[in-house]
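Reviewer 2 asked us to include a model.

Predict the structure of this chain.
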Amino acid sequence: MVFARLLLNKQDEIRDMEAELLAMDKMDDLSGKSMYLKSRTEDEGREKDSIPDTWSTTRPKLLAALETKVLGYSELLLKANQMKGLESPSNRDYRSVLRFMENGRGQLFEEEMSWVYDKEDLVTLRPGREHAWLDGILERILKVCRCRVTQETDARTDDAAIHYYDRRRISKCVTFMITILILILLMVPIWLLYKSSVRGTLTKSADTIVLILAFTLIFSAALSAFTKAKRHEIVAASAG
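Predicted model (structure tokens):
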């Protein structure tokens, strides 16, 4: 919201300066002084007597001020774009901070913590992860089991309501779970097709097509849920 108001204000200032510049050009053209429009040297060395009284400044000075204003606008626009590119906090991270603040551990007065309720204005510096939701499920399981994973994380706080977990071990555990899932999705249909071929029903039953279709759909769903694969990548992986 702040960036939008600042950008609009600078846009209006640039518009006013551009309109003034165009008025200068038109006045010189109509008064037969077009040489000042054709030559920068002539315009910069212009005598004061040839400058209309209605002009608040000279054209070179206006152009310099306009350049400064445009560069400031461009820098602000790029900063706004960078801020827009920052990731929003996940629902789990937001609820964690919200509970922390509302339980009186944020060390802020109530009237000074209203910003925490404007979720759409919040950004996170925490790098995004492909399996963040799966990490959350695993952390909730550890919380229910009252497990802090390591003595190092356990020593970070003595507050029973605050839980720390070893991020590397969580990541390794999630990676192991996904690897097992991939092996299951690859091996189970092969094993079922092998059993069908041994029984001699591989070419006689429509169940084979249904089996392949079902595991292809499950594989595509797993790619969508556990990775950041794009649509064409999911289609290519499923076709392969």
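The mean pLDDT is 76. The longest helix spans residues 167-199. We have added this to the supplementary material.
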